Structures
1.
Amino acid sequence: MTTREDPAAGLTARSVEALLFAAAEPLSLADLALRLPEGAEVAEAIADLRRRYAGRGVDLVEVAGRWRFQTADDLDYLMVQERQEPRRLSRAAQETLAIIAYHQPVTRAEIEAVRGVQASRGTLDVLLELGLVRMRGRRRTPGRPVTYGTTDLFLEHYGLAGLADLPGLADMKALGLLDMNLPPGFSVPDPSRPTDAASDEDPLDAEGAEEPEFVQDFLGGGDRQDG
Amino acid sequence: MTTREDPAAGLTARSVEALLFAAAEPLSLADLALRLPEGAEVAEAIADLRRRYAGRGVDLVEVAGRWRFQTADDLDYLMVQERQEPRRLSRAAQETLAIIAYHQPVTRAEIEAVRGVQASRGTLDVLLELGLVRMRGRRRTPGRPVTYGTTDLFLEHYGLAGLADLPGLADMKALGLLDMNLPPGFSVPDPSRPTDAASDEDPLDAEGAEEPEFVQDFLGGGDRQDG
Amino acid sequence: MTEGFQPNLDFVAAQAAADDGEALIIDLDGYEGPLHVLLALARSQKVDLLKLSVTRLAEQYLAFVHRVRSLRFSLAADYLVMAAWLAYLKSRLLLPSADKPRGDEPPAEEIAASLAFRLAKLDAMRKASDALQTRPRLGRDVFTRGDPEQVRIVGADRFEGDLYQLISAYISQRRQEQFRTYRPEVPQAFALEDARRRLRELLPELGRWTPLAGVAPVPHGDSEPTRASYLASTLSASLELVKEGALDARQMEAFAEIYLKARLTDPEGAPA
């Protein structure tokens, strides 16, 4: 495995190596090019460095379209002193994060539809507060619901080069599992919401107005008849 | 110069590499030994790494008996870069921006009325300078105060297609931001909807160059015919 | 569709709980909602989730609800609604299919397939969530340089802050607005004592006629006394110093500039 001994390429690779080592945050190819002489082959230098660092104690990885050095993941057991206990996400928050990541842009109602439960307080807002999730805009449908998506920080945190690298994404797509147009005919019955409420309903107005009435069998309706 | 392919030595070298990389300060051989399995040949690993890093963009150097990675001396010129920190909006600026976004067109006095504090001159200036806020016009009230609104850059930065995409009351409530008991009639304005304030506004252009025409239109037209 | 089997029933309590947003989410043996229970049950069938038997699933779910209800008197409404709904669906699946579906209702098989799809989707998301959480995470499994040399390349126009922060900032202010008591800002004055001390210190520099405006301090920030207060106090102080014989003051006419100068015959007896 002899590397080309082109002096210019060698200098570019050394420079990129030094910059990425010194940088406090991941750098894009454009960021790097900005600090190198015109015409420097940054992409080649990255490829060269990736080869050199393969299997070493430090890896060169792409996150959110930018590059950074990080310690090899199999050496995690050594890093006890550096480890900060990251805030643990609740199971609900983890699931919500996954749904947003795989379906973005996605509305709150859609998240709830997939999970079959109303998002409780502290699910979405924790993700927003941590900066893993952001509001992206509004869906161009009646009601114009706010849509959510993930942030670059999400990608950096989970070490993903881009959204296309989400684990299992291709398989799920192939199976049609990421389709948000749920087949008709089934919706999780939700006692707090009129079942007919189209997605254009403002959830605030929807509350209280007309409650679906249900499950006489289970709660025994007879008592109430007197009212 | 072939490195020995002793697996144990390889792992030690990788571990030392990762530890030195992730450490916040230089580490001594003793520090390293403490974090490695018993009997690890730390000195050998260091020597091995020194060879590997010789002539690269990053050097493994000894400082006062401790080891650390640092960028190669001859690449210093790459590191002297103006350190442009991302501009952090101060809390006051953030709050002022939020009020302008929702209540535009809004005058300085109105901003202060919501904030309950005098807007310091600097805050609006910062927002104007960043290009997030612009002067929109003048209110047709005594004193003709300047009105402020947001810019396209504001929309761009926050990923909004238009002002109509700003989250509204329902969205805020859904996020649990409005859980406190709010007074009846609490509302959040929709800045995309024309209001009295907007129609009560003269464009800034009406001043200066355009002034004569404006006067002519105003005085010259039908008004006189009744006389 | 569901209206067909939902007779009238007052359900104020559950509604109030739903308004609170928390009470209804009951942790039943680690399940967050009926769909999560169904998913766990469906997995036990060990078939492709898209091909699972909904009738069997319905039986299992009803049994589950029965068991949990006997342990826990208050079972969340969602679980009961789902139970009723599944019982209904099961009955429709078991009945020989009518010549054509009743009115607006889709065929039961379609609804069942739909439910299967929903479970497969939730299952996929749970697996994806697990896959994400087991990825090497920054700060837990992998680490960036511990002591970076802080090379940052950031566009000059980049600034921090996202929409969530923006609306949070907005709401926190609107909220304060409700509880605010009016507290007019107390105007700050330039104390006469301070003005006198300052002027005395300046005396050596007032060798020639200097306009009062040039002697009075200039305000720099919002929290300082106003320019008018600085001027007024400095003028008062200068008159006192004139009285003491340390200073001369001169004004050519009303409203004209006032000039100050240290008196040459220094009371300390310095060489003239």
Note: The longest strand of chain A covers residues 58-63.
2.
Amino acid sequence: MSAARTKEQIAAAIARDIPAGSFVNLGIGQPTLVADHLPPGSGVVLHTENGMLGMGPAARGGPDDPLDPDLTNAGKIPVTALPGASYFHQADSFAMMRGGHLDVCVLGAFQVSVRGDLANWHTGEPDAIPAVGGAMDLAIGAKQVFVMMTLFANDGTPKLVPTCTYPLTGLGCVSRLYTDLATFEVGAGGVRLLEAFGTTRDELTERLGVDLG
Amino acid sequence: MSAARTKEQIAAAIARDIPAGSFVNLGIGQPTLVADHLPPGSGVVLHTENGMLGMGPAARGGPDDPLDPDLTNAGKIPVTALPGASYFHQADSFAMMRGGHLDVCVLGAFQVSVRGDLANWHTGEPDAIPAVGGAMDLAIGAKQVFVMMTLFANDGTPKLVPTCTYPLTGLGCVSRLYTDLATFEVGAGGVRLLEAFGTTRDELTERLGVDLG
Amino acid sequence: MVTICDSAAEAVADVADGSTVLVGGFGPAGMPFTLIDALIDQGATDLTVVSNNAGNADVGLAALLAKGRVRKVVCSYPRQVDSWVFDALYREGRIELELVPQGNLAERMRAAGAGIGAFFCPTGVGTPLAEGKETREIDGRTYVLEMPIKGDVALVCAHRADRAGNLVYRRTARNFGPVMATAAATTVVQVSEVVDVGEIDPEVVVTPGIYVDRVVVA
Amino acid sequence: MVTICDSAAEAVADVADGSTVLVGGFGPAGMPFTLIDALIDQGATDLTVVSNNAGNADVGLAALLAKGRVRKVVCSYPRQVDSWVFDALYREGRIELELVPQGNLAERMRAAGAGIGAFFCPTGVGTPLAEGKETREIDGRTYVLEMPIKGDVALVCAHRADRAGNLVYRRTARNFGPVMATAAATTVVQVSEVVDVGEIDPEVVVTPGIYVDRVVVA
């Protein structure tokens, strides 16, 4: 039995599942790791919702690669632009997303439901300051939404759930869920286990309390 | 008593009423004459709805000023671009109009009602092929819509009417009406005669059959 | 991912009968003549064409109409001094016309490309072109509900493409191209030249390559 | 008609108490710091600010908030690692927040600038941010009705202006500038340089001068 996956291994698995030449948005946080695992020559073009296609790696700030405060990603980190890039304003950038032109979007999550509902913007705690950014637009815009997360919270609570209890980001929008312990398909037909790592279908079924298809 | 105005005189009168620095769209046909009467240095910027601000005069097709099939006005006539011009696509061009950013639009008309309704796209004849272009967008978009026309049709029928009988272009959109025989204000408060040429208020009231305010 | 095609024939090879085809251009400016000629040769029929005009003289869109390939035209301004092909078909009842104000035509395609389900528009309120459409008063003004227009294919004429499909246009020939490119399932573009990736400044790209499927030099 | 102002103070002199102010920028990129500082000095208060974020560190929008001039923030992402000014005001109940998904924020301002009365948007359906809003199913998909956001004033940071007010931006600092410029009654722009009319290629203008009222070099 193989071991549970590291973040890097999850990112690599997602990168393998992104078709060559895709237009992809990688959400803030762990999903950005996916970029490091895209094979050279894949032709994958990265979109950043603050207004660019053809985003390159983070800027290193060296003499050949100065940090430019006018060139950042959605996490407000200085990045680079690759040849063939283009800039556009926010209405155009979100029209691109909402109009279904991105092939894949990779997001983090607090919870994903077996039907593909996504909760990733708000814990619902009464004293939390809510912030949503582009999460809801990304959730419903891309042709496929992949979620990258640990399968269980630190306290052992499942994050793949029959019904999300956290405030929703989008309804039925997630198609695939990549976690440390397993990869799943989710959607209108319910959840289906594709592969397990360091655990078994029976163990997962028991711990998650859902039918794994 | 002064004489009835020529087309050129009507155009000159309209040009005088356009504030310096205005953004203006001149409709196809007679309204284009207004451009010739804008004083040098007026700073008036012409919009053409097929996608340009800063339109210059018609191209003459000489060696210094070649006809360019990629640079035309809304009447598909080759024109020139002035320094400070900009090009944009159709959705942006009509967003500019619909959003109320143009100061003045000058249009021709079949009929204008005393309340400022405009009919200028379709005679309503059953065998006519209808065509509307940007007329409806222009009618409701500009801050002020000026109409330039003869006051009576060739058969003597008034074109300033209590209620339009031709199919409408826009409701209550015309603010001022410039004709060979008179200039009027029209709108929610009804029509008001501003100036008569070669005729009198009483004559006009009788021929038009409307209260001239 | 964009394909740089060797011929216009290759670029339009898969246009199916019954397709809705968005055709760029405002009169001849920005009209994709080479792509339309290739579509005529290709033979697709029963088409719905969305374009500002309904063809000029006997070339381009007019030639496609003359071949009897177009069931319906959605446009703002069919009647022109040189629109005799459309005029005859229309008078003979051999072609359907949906007349749309020019700005609504552009905005309805933008909505399709931008994932907007419908929008309330002030243009055409109280006119025959809004008859039968839902209206609503918002903040004291009356609006008409307008629906998106989506294409199966867009045929667009741009000036220059890079090999990633980024486009720039030329002067007022830009017109409907950028909007149509967003609104069709497949966007096919004819250009004057194709340059290497990196040769178009990212600041001046008008249509990002994400909207472009096929490019051919014409 | 655009005015090239000698100072930022002159450019924001007439901002009234109670105004809705659209403030460009995505975090610090594209944030009109000089104009905001001038607005702080000018003293307008009881403002509603529409911006993607609610200020970073103690500068720009955060400084305006810290002065107690802002009644309400309409934004997509107030909570950031360095948003302590907003965080404190919010927890103390001293500022109102309307949270809007980022794309809806942009599209609602675009609608205001484009004369669209309202639009059906798929973003946020079924989430707390759509609660109480009208929904409609169109072609099998559910949409939420979203209303325009119009500003009294827009404060925008661009890269270069010509004396006719045509603007170009720099890289991802473009973000909300072009949309906000269309959506406000008065648009005030800070730029790195002003050039003569004719020095910006008409093909690359991002914001045409019609949308710009005042420009100041900062």
Note: Chain D touches chain A through 48 residues (CB under 8 Å).
